[in-house]
Design brief:
Elements lengths: L1 H25 L2 E2 L4 E3 L5 E10 L12 H13 L16 E10 L8 E8 L10 E8 L5 E8 L5 E4 L4 E4 L4 E10 L12 E6 L4 H15 L4 E3 L4 E5 L5 H9 L2 E2 L6 E5 L4 E4 L4 E2 L2 E3 L5 E6 L2 E3 L10 E3 L2 E6 L7 E3 L5 H10 L4 H13 L3 E2 L1 E4 L1
Parallel strand pairs: 15-25
Antiparallel strand pairs: 1-14, 2-11, 3-4, 3-6, 4-5, 5-10, 6-7, 7-10, 8-9, 11-13, 12-13, 15-16, 17-24, 18-23, 19-22, 20-21
Function: Assembles around the rod to form the L-ring and probably protects the motor/basal body from shearing forces during rotation.
Keywords: Bacterial flagellum, Cell projection, Cilium, Flagellum, Periplasm, Signal
Pfam families: FlgI (PF02119)
């Protein structure tokens, strides 16, 4: 019996030690998930084009002048003269659209990228249309890709004489692999001797932890945190691709700012794990008065000299929420204790927003409060 008890105690101790070792590891994240390499980024492209082949759901040419002019210009480039009867054109099978996409880093000529399409005029539905050849321009005015192909909205729209139904947005569409890259953005990664990591959430502590992790892994001082967002890297003749690939897989524990974010329009509240509340007493409740009118009609007997009388009946209910008590939250409580304490008071999301704003005004909320 004693040996079995000792074995159980030993197994339990091993499990507790394993859990203790796993806990900090679970909080670690890869550097590539919280930081970007400066200079390696997407570039936004935009273009103006025409979608044709619509089943009468395109732009009205009489009101969308730019669509009519674009259609006339396209037909003239194809050898069709429409200037003489331009104002008589009344087709509804064409729609003017804006085409947007992001050119990925290191995209080479001939590779394909997805494009997004949005109606520019008064078209009702782009389903079933075909985007004609559309040059996509960068910020410098140069053409970096050309888009063309059948559009897919993923929306459903039906209309009858007395009702209509719509699911999704039929005037926005996408073309998977709908653009071909014609020009690349030059960037030589192998020739770089120094680079910088840009943190997605700037923080001094996280930047120092990243620099320390890189220096430990490389065995030399090659990383320096220059500000809350930037960690400078000195490659020092190393292979940039192999060195940066190794850095991306290093794990650190990112630090968090104590912050409470409130989306007042939807009633959403997000609180970080470092939020703390000083000792504070909370009382929450409202006086509700409900008045219900149920008038009763009294009618005389048939063939009598009486008259119809309406007797008012009013019912008044008062809810002063006496069951709600004043709650005391102890100082330096955790996020879980805060939520548990407020839930015990029967506080809903809308009331919780008011309570958190009031706690902040009282100076008891030791966190940044951001209301959107």
């Amino acid at each position: 019996m004693a040996s079995n008890t000792f074995a159980r105690i030993k197994i339990a101790a091993v499990l507790l030690l394993a859990m203790a070792l796993m806990a900090p590891a679970m909080a670690q994240v890869r550097i590539k998930d919280i930081a970007d390499l400066e200079g390696i980024r997407d570039n936004q492209l935009v273009g103006y084009g025409l979608v044709v082949g619509l089943p009468g759901t395109g732009d009205r040419l009489r009101s969308s002048v730019f669509t009519r002019q674009s259609l006339v210009g396209m037909l003239e480039r194809l050898g069709v003269n429409t200037r003489d009867f331009e104002r008589q054109m009344d087709t509804k099978n064409v729609a003017a659209v804006m085409v947007t996409t992001n050119l990925p880093a290191f995209a080479r000529p001939g590779s394909r990228i997805d494009v997004a399409i949005s109606s520019l005029g008064d078209a009702q539905n782009l389903t079933g249309g075909l985007l004609l050849v559309t040059p996509l321009l960068g910020a410098d005015g140069e053409v970096y890709a050309v888009a063309q192909g059948p559009v897919a909205t993923g929306a459903i729209a039906a209309r009858g004489a007395g009702a209509s139904v719509q699911r999704g947005v039929p005037t926005s569409a996408r073309i998977a692999s709908g653009a071909i890259v014609e020009r690349e953005v030059p960037y030589s990664l192998g020739a770089q001797q120094a680079m910088r990591l840009a943190l997605r959430n700037p923080d001094l502590t996280t930047a120092r932890r990243i620099a320390a992790a890189i220096n430990r892994a490389s065995g030399a001082t090659v990383a320096t945190a220059t500000d809350p967002r930037t960690v400078a890297l000195a490659l020092g003749g190393r292979d940039p691709v192999g060195f940066l690939a190794g850095i991306e897989q290093l794990r650190v524990v990112p630090d968090q700012v104590a912050r409470v974010v409130i989306e007042e329009a939807s009633g959403t509240i997000v609180m970080g794990s470092n939020v703390r509340i000083s000792t504070v007493a909370i009382a929450q409740g409202n006086l509700t008065i409900r008045i219900t009118e149920t008038p009763q009609v009294s009618q005389p007997n048939p063939f009598s000299d009486g008259e119809t009388v309406v007797t008012p009946r009013t019912q008044i209910e008062i809810d002063d929420q006496r069951e709600r008590r004043v709650g005391v939250l102890a100082g330096s409580i955790t996020l879980a204790e805060l939520v548990r304490g407020l839930n015990s008071l029967g506080v809903g999301p809308r009331d919780l927003i008011t309570i958190l704003q009031t706690i902040k005004a009282a100076g008891a909320l030791q966190a940044e409060l951001e209301v959107r």
